[in-house]
Amino acid sequence: MSADFAELDYRQTPLGELTLRRRRVAALDGLEVFEVKLGDAFLMSSLFHEVEVALADLGLAAVTAAEMDVVVGGLGLGYTAVAALKNPAVRSLLVVDALDAVIEWHERGLVPLGRVLTGDARCRFVHGDFFALAAAPEQGFDDTQTGRKFHAVLLDIDHSPRNLLHARHGVFYEADGLRQLAAQLHPGGVFALWSDDPPDEDFLAALCAVFATANAQVVRFFNPLLERDSASTVYVAGKAAA
Question: What pTM was estimated for this model as a whole?
Answer without folding.
Answer: 0.94
